[in-house]
Amino acid sequence: MSDYEQVLYERIGPVARISHNRPERRNAEGTRMLEEMERAIAEALADDSVRVLVIAGVGNHFSAGHDLKEGESRRHYSVEQRYAHEERLFYDFCLKLRDAPKPTIAQVQGACLAAAFMLANMCDLVVASEDAFFADPVVNTLGAAAVEVLIHPSVLGMRAAKDLLFTGRRMDAREAYKIGMVSRLVPRSELEAETLALAGQIAKAPPFALKLVKRSLHRTMDMAGFRAGLDAHFDTHQLSHASAAFGDVWEKGLSTAIESGRKAVG
Known about the structure:
With 266 residues, the chain is an alpha/beta fold. The chain is 52% helix and 15% strand. It has 13 helices and nine strands.
């Protein structure tokens, strides 16, 4: 659609592919992009001819995560302002994607970091190219308690989640596939075709049956405490912004964190 500037919305048969579209910025997720992505997802969900949504990224990377350059403009946000901003753009948006009644697939190549890590893992399935890698360096680079949505233990298991978060290291696609976070692992040259083939296969199933089985699966997780855990962590994440370590990063500016992010992406 022409009114999207930082998101690419494509219809491919019964599939709507919604892509991060700031390749010159490694698809960093700023306010405009996330608002456009939320609107594009709503458009796809409202279209009865769309059976499956694919979340992707234009260029070499799925997304390098939070737009830290834009974040510098919020250095002097009050507690209330930061809470409202992150609740709307990150927490609420991610949960809307998770609760989408239609199947969703993340198509991941290159970097999938921080905010992008949680967005990709809101999807029902993750198809990754062999050059994809995942990380959440927020604890190490910003002194904050991970990202806004603590999806990590659910998709990685507790030990691997602690390993990833405590160290801030990269997890390559092969390791993520072995753990079970990645559903399909494919060569980079086959990523788009394989993702669309999977989406097309899913699109053949009756949509109401897909909606109901997805709801049952998510209810099982929620009854085990999944959503309560996410709610609790979001408040903890906000509290971590008041720490001396986080304050020091913001007082000095985000240049060090931005540079660390560039090195993480490569």
